[in-house]
Amino acid sequence: MTEVRWGEAWAGVRFGLRPPSRELEAGGSISLELFAENRSAAPISLFGFQPAYPRSLRVSPPKAHRPWIRVSFGDTNVLHPPEAFVRLLPGAVVSIGLDLSFAFDRRGAGAWDVAFAYDPVRASGRLDAWQPPEGREASTAITPIIITVAQSLRDAGIDEHAEAALDAALLRGDGELLDRLRAYGEGGVAFAARRLARILSPGAESTIGWRALDALSLGGPAVIEVVHAHRALLPHAEPALAFAETWLRHRHGQPPPLEHLPFVTLLERVIEQPDQRGNFMLAWTAVDSAVHGTRRLQVFGNGERIVSGRLPGASQGHTRRSYLPLAQMQVLVEALRDAAVWTLRPLREIGMPDEPRPGLEVQLALGEPFSRNVALWNGEWRLGPAASLAELLDRLSESAPPDSMPPPSMPPPSTMPPPAR
Q1: pTM (2 decimals)?
Q2: SS3 letters for the chain?
Q3: Is the model more confident about 6 or about 416?
């Protein structure tokens, strides 16, 4: 096992990195083990070493005054609860893994110097979190790591220049992307499968991953096996690859997994037989926070639509009610099938600062097998396979006019069945 690279101790605490014992492959799993040791005479509270509490990483590229990659915890602008910290007794050592896979996937092959720095983190309540002395940076020693190229891509004729060109085509949404991938044969499929890992990246970086999924969905059934094989090659990207495999099987007409079969079967019946929508209910919460306000849509099987909202900072909200015609109800239930709503699940552990997390609840009939309740980060809704569904639900939650609330005695339009009693 390689030796830990310890940095200088400040206020009785020092940090260290253990470099990997071998060369690593770009696009694969790249994880470094971070250590903290309490050399003081009193217990301390450290952020970032609690596995059960989510935290992000900030990876800064080399600069003229700092020719190494600086890694730190990226959660310094908010207050964290006591459960985000670990209590480290005098003489104790704690460790946790730093998953840098995505940062080095973008950076590519080469020999890189890395150091971790502990930036001050604020704690809520009366917790006295450990901070480095003012004007000092508590960091590890500089740790070298070696990243090699993805040999499977090089064997397929995709060199560094071709990788960069394909990445740019993915980011642009180039119309010729599919032809360019096909020109590399199995190597092109492998390239797109590896890029699926970027779905787990925050912000615009995830665009490459979602567009790689779009490109794979236009290929033949053989792409499913390639994606399945990469689940073992890229364990850090397991959530993205598992979702992609499920989605691709759906796109190629394979039956759903047994646990989803009752839901899918009843959804088909609800689509084909409008009179089976008596217990149908859909709820879409686009936003619900002090920053963004509240916007919620409810649709029932008889076409009744209730839109409720509250502007940011407002103390009171509003509620509007109207009825959807049969044609719009048909579009809505078909959109649930097209988005394979039963496959949807959150993939990223954390979102961007103040990123909304829209929630969707669907009930086809009474009972757990016939309902789904999922909340995804806003970027996952807007870039993933459910983008069209999210757009439709947003339109339905915004288009109800202020005067759409009919008097209680007014029946629904004659084209709609009466509300269930």
Answers
A1: 0.69
A2: CCCCEECCCECCEEEEEECCCCCEECCCCCEEEEEEEECCCCCEEEECCCCCCCCCEEEECCECCECCEEEEECCCCCEECHHHEEEECCCCEEEEEEECHHHHHHHCCEEEEEEEEECCCEECCCCCCCCCCCCCCEECCCEEEEEECCHHHHHCCCCHHHHHHHHHHHHHCCCCHHHHHHCCCHHHHHHHHHHHHHHHCCHHHHHHHHHHHHHHHCCCCHHHHHHHHHHHHCHHHHHHHHHHHHHHHHHCCCCCCHHHHHHHHHHHHHHHCHHHCCCCEEEEEEEEECCCEEEEEEEECCCEEEEEEECCCCCCCEEEEEECCHHHHHHHHHHHHHCCHHHCCCCCCCCCCCCCCCEEEEECCCCHHHEEEEECCHHHHHHCCCHHHHHHHHHHHHCCCCCCCCCCCCCCCCCCCCCCC
A3: 6
